[in-house]
Design a protein that fits this description.
globular, alpha+beta, Aminopeptidase, 31% strand
Length: 306
């Protein structure tokens, strides 16, 4: 069977999302979302989404390819490749990697990072191409139909509100997001400093559920939050949960996430997903308290170009 790799087209959206869901069920993926993401990629990311298709036009593999435009370190390239489990062995993954690497190198990448599902075949695939393992991360799943810890009353001076309360001026949430992202564990650091792009790509993202996103406000100041995404299929995902440095150690993130999960269940969601760096002990402990269990593990592989 002949397989070709090419740039995405609008009609590929459903196939792109389908492959993502099949290869990594823990991540939300819809046709509307991927079209939005393609259209709102930051210009400096030089993003190039790719698909591997058969002669009949069936999408059997995808690649997300970009430069880390928000990293203080230049030359960081990213390629995440997924192949439909029912279509492995046709060479789609190798073709996607080769095309992605060429694109990134042409645009100045000196280090290439890729998330690989933890398994002997996937690890061997990466290592044959010169990639070495770095840190790992877990995808966690929670059955929302099986119960949640009871809702807790916030302490004096703390109010729990939805993100909708900031609809007129979301900048305080951008600043909170930036503060928590700055010290998030990971190989590649990110600095959120482009408010207009954050508004466009995060605040207005089609999966962003503002009514389920909960913010802990301390004496009028947003101090912690748990961002929620939903796909309309009963699946909920925590986009980010964090606390501003000045308010840490008070259990505010846990409080916000618990409220968000209860809102999600009341809204009809039946499954909750989240992701944690394997070294992020505090957040893993919080999620274990909620009842999350590890559903899948990915390993970050890196190839340094000489």
């Amino acid at each position: 069977m002949t397989v070709i790799v090419r740039d995405v087209r609008p009609e590929d959206a459903e196939g792109f999302a389908r492959v993502r869901r099949a290869a990594l069920p823990c991540m939300l993926a819809t046709a509307e979302q991927v079209v939005f993401d393609w259209a709102h990629a930051h210009p400096e990311a030089h993003a190039r989404p790719l698909v591997a298709v058969t002669e009949e036009g069936e999408v059997i593999g995808t690649a997300q390819v970009s430069l880390a435009h928000d990293s203080p370190e230049p030359g960081i390239g990213s390629l995440n490749v997924y192949v439909d489990p029912a279509r492995r062995g046709l060479g789609a993954g190798a073709l996607l990697v080769r095309t992605a690497e060429e694109h990134l190198v042409e645009r100045g990448a000196t280090a290439l990072y890729s998330w690989i599902l933890d398994g002997p075949e996937n690890r061997a695939f990466a290592e044959r191409r010169g990639y070495a393992p770095s840190r790992s991360a877990h995808f966690l799943r929670l059955d929302l139909t099986a119960g949640l810890p009871p809702l807790q009353e916030p302490p004096a001076g703390v109010e729990l509100v939805s993100a909708e309360e900031f609809a007129a001026d979301p900048r305080p949430l951008f600043e909170l997001d930036a503060a928590t992202t700055a010290d998030e564990p990971g190989d590649v650091k990110a600095e959120l400093d482009d408010y207009p792009h954050w508004l466009e790509s995060t605040w207005n993202h089609p999966l962003h559920a503002r009514s389920l996103t909960v913010v802990a406000v301390v004496e009028g100041v947003p101090a912690a939050f748990s961002a929620a995404r939903t796909d309309g299929l009963g699946r909920y995902s925590s986009g980010m949960t964090g606390t501003a440095p000045a308010f840490r150690g008070r259990g505010l993130a846990k409080l916000a996430k618990n409220a968000s999960l209860h809102r999600a269940r009341s809204a009809g969601c039946t499954e909750a997903f989240t992701g944690n760096d394997a070294g992020n002990g505090p957040m893993l402990a919080i999620n274990e308290w909620f009842g999350y269990t590890v559903d899948a593990t990915e390993v970050r592989y890196v190839r340094t170009l000489g």
